[in-house]
Amino acid sequence: MKVSDAICKFFETKNVEYVFGYPGGALLPMYESFRHSNFKHILVRNEQGAVHSASGYARISGKVGVCIATSGPGATNLITGIATAYMDSIPIVAITGQVNTEAIGKDSFQEADITGATEPFTKHNYLVKDPNDILRVLKEAFFIASSGRPGPVLIDIPRNVQDAHIDFDLSKEINILGYKPTTDGHSGQIKKIIQRIKKANRPLIYVGGGVFSAKATKELREFVKITKIPLVNTMMGLGAFPMDSPYYGGMVGFHGNEHSELILKEADLVLIIGARMSDRATMNFSSFKTDTDLIHIDIDPAEIGKNVVNQIPIVGDAKNILNSLNKKISTLKIEDWLNKVNDIKTFTENFVTTNTKTINPKIALRLLSSISPNDTIITADVGQNQIWAAKNFKYYGDRRYLTSGGLGTMGYSLSASIGAKLASPNREVICVTGDGGIQMLLAELGTLAESKAKVIILLFNNSALGMVKELQEKKYGKNAPFGIDYDLSPDFVKIAKAFSLSGERVYSNANLNKVYQKALSSEKSFLIECIVDKDFGTL
Amino acid sequence: MKNYVLSLLVENNSGVLSRVSGLFSRRGYNITSLSVGETENKNISRMTIVVFADEPTLEQIKKQLNKLINTIKITEFDYSNSIQRELILVKVKSSAKNRYQIIDVAGIFGAKIIDVISDEITLELTENENKIRSFIELLKPFGIIEFVRSGITGIEKKSI
Known about the structure:
heterodimer; A: alpha/beta; 6-stranded parallel sheet; 18 strands; 39% helix; 16% strand; B: alpha+beta; 5-stranded antiparallel sheet; 4-stranded antiparallel sheet; 45% strand; elongated; transferase (chain A); amino-acid biosynthesis (chain A); thiamine pyrophosphate binding (chain A); Acetolactate synthase (chain A); magnesium ion binding (chain A)
């Protein structure tokens, strides 16, 4: 069997539904095989869009996202998306075509050392020179991408290797000598944790995106139900715990809730679950008092003790560890602490001004939150729109919030929304973005239209890079903003329509409900362009 | 901050050295020396890496190295659990007058004389780091022209 056919057959054994990609000369054999395969190919407009779509797909389906690009510029266009997936621990297998084996290393046409280039931000990568290695490599890649701490794996395949013939034999078990992730927490450490939690007066749970990677939201909710310990989350952990719960203490971090930071500072024990304690989420590590005890649960041992010193480390899968804890832990007597948490929450409640001439994004998102289904998926870009969507859309039920939390990649939202919708066609998907972010990968509107995935795009247009403007003002003064204005913004509604999508511009919150209802009932993807005042703040 | 010796068993594939050394450079770790060669199993190589770090950084280095898929095992060496050696080739200025003094120094350390020409001698010594350092100190007064060191390599002692 041809290697390219074997790859398709392998994808079918892994139930790959979609491959997001862009063809090229170094992928001719692959695309010829794709033509006869069962999975669907989504043709993107830029390879970066392929990885982000695969990322959105992976995060909602819980499966490995697959993307493909040709050699040279195709492969290098994947880099930002791969680095984004690496920072957020998203399981992705990226296939790149490569020039023929005999042309490698000769600066051949469309040749790039993509394994070298992606080495720092792939979990692992391969250059397949021997056709007989391909099935082993594919098996290993899917296993590595989806096990332990998930992440992107890249496979670079020369064109002549794709054309070679091999026996399709998957019977050989994979055995990667250096890769044996620890998934069960050490029983001694679990015992220690339980003893320490029982002694705590003001315990707090601190949840990151690892809870989603471990598919442990049910276990987390059970843990809170049993123990009554309050919880805060990072931006990546949004949606892991319902915001309408009395135990919910808000979002921590640079743009988090003020009350969450105060709660964090009051805690005498913080149980960190699946969070990498980034500088943004820990406010440059000033979030904790120095004498607060920390318990850190993470599948990646390198995350424990990397940024904050922890008293009790426990390496393993959050689902397994929470399951073990749930069997042995009981309700704590911490009513006073809970009352205090709720007092702090009420005291610092954010009141939103309604007096704006144009769209108030906070009110807009609160409105949409109240009328959207409980399992709505929000994808957010990077910038003000990301923070507005994180803090004003309410996450409960099965609502999810997808964003580029680690790398902070603008342009993520639109492509991620396509993948998310394809992974879960019955759920509403709202792509929140800004005029800066959407223009990074604007042509992906074409991918969206062609894919037939129905997404509502909520575009906050303030004709500027709002968050950079704020940072400049904060650091250099009111007159400092420079290089952030779009003097010529396109007519986004016309552009949407040019891509055969629907769209409407909204100037005030009063009209938003009507347009949103129209978007909900629309059969096509619908772009709602919200005109926002340039000076409207993030917080 | 001090030097620590790490011994890594890694898969003997192309790109592994780049992954290991790249990890050091992009995370800002200070590498003092690195030596690498195939083991008795041709699929496995051993790298001996000397790093200059404090203890928390060393811990992080070990964890990050462990994360690499090609890393099979990491052992931290000290003098009690390992035998460590380094090779030095050193070229020293010599004259007819002091040649025998240099040969005496070589004799004390068990160094080999591998090349002699009219005004220089090249010596070879395989020893632990301390002895190499002393050897260099004793040769300095004669005038060292240049030397090359292989970096430390080591092997675990049999546990008793």
